[in-house]
């Protein structure tokens, strides 16, 4: 497509677009994002340009397809192509194939079609394609464990714009920073001024954090890949099955994707899993540990006979001491053993490392008590430590995986695009194979079809008889009932539309003129009333005085009014058309009458019955040049004359021959 011919595109914009590799495809698909990648082209402008281009293409195709029947056949052909595509992207993309009279447009699609028909439509690729969908923008994620802080209003606005996923807090001093560090597992300070400020917690001074938002918010990259994972994996499978040239290391991408969970979380990180499990099992394990200690202590107490001298007992009682002091005096070793068992249980059950174990050991008091009770403030500290470690681990894991994946962002887009384009190509390849298509040659006048097989017939492919038909100038097409006259017009129309779409055509060989307009008038159902008749005559009169290079196909126009008048009107229209550079085929049962009524010599072709077999006509589907085909009634009278040998049939036959 020449960019400058798009409404509203000047020379400068056109050259900017020409630099953009994907601009042509983008224009055709209305892909605003790709267009807006051109230097100096905003998204709004890109949208207007894409709309203009699509409108122009639409105009181009409606200039060529002038009648409902022609447009209907275009739609039927598109449906046949679409049936052979797998993805809805390819089905939509096929709709952008339209018949054109522009040679550059036709040649452009022809080179695509050539590439497409060289492809092998392997059924395994079809299966792999089923999962490919166009990539979607990442869902906006909200991150709650980290925040950005600044004291500067301008930086605040820039941060909100660059990383909408993160909370951005305003903070002036160390106290504010300390508060934030308590509320978030990581605080990222954007101001240099925070360097060296000592507060408890994970505070990082990163004035460049806004330069690379994807690194600051690895969740963004992860969410993109999590949302598009199935499609990218399917695209990888397509590349492997179809042996396409990959844009990146497929195994490495596949591996990175396998570490990503469906919600953008990191999978298969044993340390993260350990910490998560420890956080969620903490309370239950503390209680079990407590029971372990108490059961063991209870057992020890039950087993012991405590002998205590009366004076000792008295002195203890006088000091108001309870069972605890008795324990520490008499059962110190048993208490230590019971509490040690509780600690070991807690450490084992939560699989704590040495740093965490150190905190955990303090969860049970050194001083004997009964029953043994855990220290809630220590358990709280342990919980905070485990949660902080878990979040740090998760963030690091996300950052590492996001860094691995970030390099695949563009290549993944190319993989998916290539897979989707392959689907479009394979749809064309399958159509071309199934209908045994050939690339048409443009040139000369009119159209020449050898071995044409109409894809619009409902017959199974193997039952379709190939048709040869050549027509240039204005021709009447006569023929027996159900001989295939309408099907011949359909074939000509379909071949012209496919050829002018730039696609291969269902025939052994086709040469055709690049037509400027295609008019196909389907058979009118029954006689028209006066008003409709007037409208139709006007329409055809306009047609007869129209421009050059048109193809006009008309099916049994005679049914619009009574036979005598019809023949006269059609003869007049054909005379007029004959004086222009038009290729026309008029199917008619009144060919003889029309020729008689015409002032000029009108060509006539015939679809003939070559005989009757078991009461059925045997038809040669290819029209014979310069032959007025005998009609079905004539053939039947001839058969009766031959078989019965009576004078009456000879007389009837004589009427046909005069
Ligand atoms: N090339 C072909 N190969 C196989 N079958 C065909 C072919 N052409 C036509 N037919 C069969 O013949 C039937 C009649 O064809 P068609 O309607 O084109 O005939 P027609 O000559 O226009 O008939 P009418 O005189 O009734 O208008 C089709 O429905 C189809 O079943």
Automatic annotation (TrEMBL):
One of its GO terms (biological process) is mismatch repair. ATP binds at residues 479-486. Residues 472-653 form the DNA mismatch repair proteins mutS family domain. Its cofactor is a divalent metal cation. The keyword GTP-binding does not apply. The keyword Transmembrane does not apply. Pfam families: HHH_5. Keywords: ATP-binding, DNA-binding, Hydrolase, Nucleotide-binding. GO terms for molecular function: ATP binding; ATP-dependent DNA damage sensor activity; hydrolase activity; mismatched DNA binding. InterPro entries: DNA-bd_MutS2_arc, DNA_mismatch_repair_MutS_C, MutS, P-loop_NTPase, RuvA_2-like. It comes from the Archaea. Has ATPase and non-specific DNA-binding activities. PANTHER family: DNA MISMATCH REPAIR PROTEIN MUTS FAMILY MEMBER (PTHR11361), DNA-BINDING PROTEIN MUTS2 (PTHR11361:SF125). Belongs to the DNA mismatch repair MutS family. Archaeal Muts2 subfamily. This is DNA-binding protein MutS2. It comes from Halalkalicoccus jeotgali (strain DSM 18796 / CECT 7217 / JCM 14584 / KCTC 4019 / B3).
């Amino acid at each position: 497509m020449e960019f400058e011919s798009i409404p509203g595109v000047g020379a400068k914009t056109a050259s900017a677009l020409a630099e953009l590799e994907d601009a042509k495809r983008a224009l055709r698909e209305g892909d605003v994002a790709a267009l807006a990648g051109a230097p100096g082209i905003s998204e709004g402008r890109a949208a207007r340009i894409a709309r203009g281009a699509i409108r122009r293409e639409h105009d181009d195709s409606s200039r060529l397809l002038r009648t409902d029947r022609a447009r209907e056949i275009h739609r039927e052909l598109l449906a046949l192509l679409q049936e052979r595509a797998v993805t809805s992207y390819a089905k939509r993309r096929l709709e952008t194939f339209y018949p054109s009279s522009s040679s550059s447009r036709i040649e452009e699609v022809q080179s695509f079609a050539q590439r497409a028909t060289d492809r092998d439509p392997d059924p395994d690729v079809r299966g792999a394609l089923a999962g490919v969908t166009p990539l979607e923008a990442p869902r906006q994620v909200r991150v709650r464990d980290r925040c950005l802080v600044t004291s500067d209003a301008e930086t605040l606005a820039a941060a909100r714009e660059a990383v909408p996923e993160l909370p951005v807090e305003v903070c002036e001093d160390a106290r504010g920073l300390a508060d934030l560090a308590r509320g978030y597992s990581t605080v990222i300070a954007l101001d240099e001024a925070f360097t060296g400020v000592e507060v408890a917690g994970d505070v990082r001074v990163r004035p460049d954090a806004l330069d690379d938002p994807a690194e600051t918010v690895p969740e963004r990259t992860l969410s993109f890949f999590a949302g598009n994972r199935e499609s990218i994996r399917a695209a990888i499978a397509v590349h492997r099955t179809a042996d396409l040239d990959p844009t990146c290391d497929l195994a490495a991408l596949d591996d990175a994707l396998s570490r990503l969970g469906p919600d953008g979380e990191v999978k298969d990180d044993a340390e993260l899993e350990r910490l998560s499990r420890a956080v969620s099992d903490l309370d239950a394990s503390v209680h079990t540990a407590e029971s372990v200690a108490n059961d063991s202590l209870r057992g020890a107490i039950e087993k012991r006979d405590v002998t205590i001298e009366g004076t000792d007992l008295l002195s203890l009682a006088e000091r108001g001491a309870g069972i605890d002091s008795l324990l520490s005096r008499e059962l110190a070793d048993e208490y230590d053993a019971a509490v040690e068992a509780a600690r070991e249980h807690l450490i084992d059950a939560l699989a704590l490392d040495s740093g965490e174990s150190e905190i955990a050991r303090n969860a049970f008091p050194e001083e004997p008590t009964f029953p043994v009770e855990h220290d809630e403030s220590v358990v709280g500290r342990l919980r905070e430590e485990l949660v902080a470690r878990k979040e740090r681990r998760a963030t690091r894991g996300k950052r590492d995986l996001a860094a691995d994946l970030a390099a695949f962002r563009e290549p993944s887009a190319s993989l998916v695009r290539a897979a989707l384009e392959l689907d479009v190509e394979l749809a064309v390849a399958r159509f071309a194979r199934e209908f045994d298509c050939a690339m048409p040659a443009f040139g000369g006048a009119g159209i020449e079809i050898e071995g044409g097989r109409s894809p619009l017939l409902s017959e199974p492919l193997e039952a379709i008889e190939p048709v040869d038909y050549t027509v240039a100038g204005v021709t009447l097409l006569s023929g027996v009932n159900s001989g295939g006259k309408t099907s011949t017009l359909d074939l000509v129309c379909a071949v012209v539309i496919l050829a002018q779409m730039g696609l291969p055509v269902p025939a052994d060989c086709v040469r055709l003129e690049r037509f400027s307009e295609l008019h196909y008038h389907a058979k009118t159902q029954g006689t028209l009333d006066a008003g409709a008749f007037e409208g139709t005559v006007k329409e055809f009169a306009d047609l007869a005085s129209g421009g050059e290079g048109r193809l006009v196909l008309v099916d049994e126009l005679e049914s619009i009014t009574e036979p005598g008048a019809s023949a006269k009107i059609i003869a007049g229209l054909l005379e007029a058309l004959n004086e222009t550079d038009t290729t026309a085929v008029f199917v008619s049962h009144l060919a003889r009458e029309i020729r008689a009524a015409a002032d000029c010599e009108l060509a006539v072709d015939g679809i003939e019955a070559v005989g009757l077999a078991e009461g059925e006509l045997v038809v040669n589907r290819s029209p014979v040049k310069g032959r007025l085909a005998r009609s079905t009634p004539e053939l039947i009278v001839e058969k009766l004359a031959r078989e019965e040998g009576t004078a009456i049939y000879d007389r009837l036959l004589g009427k046909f021959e005069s």
